[in-house]
Amino acid sequence: MPRPALSAITELFKPITWFPPMWAFACGVVASGVAMDGKWLLAIVGIALAGPFVCATSQAVNDWFDRHVDAINEPQRPIPSGRMPGRWGLGIAVVWTGVSLAVALVLGPWGFAAAALGLALAWAYSAPPLRLKENGWWGNAACGISYEGIAWTTGAAVMAGGAMPGSRSLLLALLYSVGTHGIMTLNDFKSVQGDRAMGVRSLPVQLGEQRAAGVACWIMGLPQLLVVVLLFAWGRPGHGLAVALLLGIQLLMMDYFLARVTQRAYWYSGFGVPFFVAGMMVSAFALRGQATAP
Fold first, then answer.
1. Angle between helices 56-65 and 88-104 (to 10 degrees)
2. What is the distance between the alpha carbons of residues 4 and 91, in angstroms, rounded to a whole number?
3. How far is Cα 235 from Cα 44, in angstroms, rounded to an integer?
4. pLDDT in tens, 125-160
5. Per-position b or e across 239-248, b if 16+ CB within 10 A of its CB
6. CA-atom Rg of the chain in angstroms
7. Other CB atoms within 10 A of residue 129 CB
8. pLDDT in tens, 39-91
9. Helix/strand/coil percentages in the chain, nearest 5
10. What is the distance between the alpha carbons of residues 12 and 79, in angstroms, rounded to a whole number?
């Protein structure tokens, strides 16, 4: 059987998708309030684990179990196009799962457990019998938890020597995980046709595209509003104002997006979401010096 080209393997791993969990891990590192002296290697390994290992594995798993849907939605992808022949896609997903767990050992018990949980969710999201992605509510929740919550919490815990992050850090990680549920809905607009044909009940399929877009905007916006309230309550008004400004920009962009959701979902995902993730880092910096706060 012919081997896939390196370019096909790279495409299978989708490097563009690695940014969210890498960024979330970095947010956790910042939120920990721990000095980086002597811990740069841990931070770098953790960021790499979140992106080119765990996230890349999740993309390979998803493409293998979505190959029939992709044949309708995106036939140019490596597996449906034949550039990833036979069962190479599944083999790469299995091997990279093992490699990711091996790398996670460098981060100690907490990092290994977090990686194992993230990988379990990645397989549960795409693979039968659970295949969480067949229902947009469950599948998007699994992505939000993996991409943001687990990554943020792991970054904070690893930097603190394995200690449980403070409740404020955990609360922010949870809120941004919820918000990411809406971001994942935006990603579903490009595959509505194939999802309907193959019985994948994404939110645009379940609710209709216009209603799903509105739900996604609410799910993205409300957690950020709560973050603003919390930052003011925690005595960080400057950071709260910054997140409020970033949210205000998103609300203006959401209004433009909602006027023509099918045509502008990809636009909003590319130009609106960066303001969301910028707010994550602002919130993380707000916690510096408050890592021991209850």
1. 160
2. 12
3. 31
4. 999 999 999 999 999 999 999 999 999 999 999 998
5. bbebbbebbe
6. 19
7. 5
8. 899 999 999 999 999 999 999 999 999 999 899 989 999 999 999 999 999 99
9. 80, 0, 20
10. 8
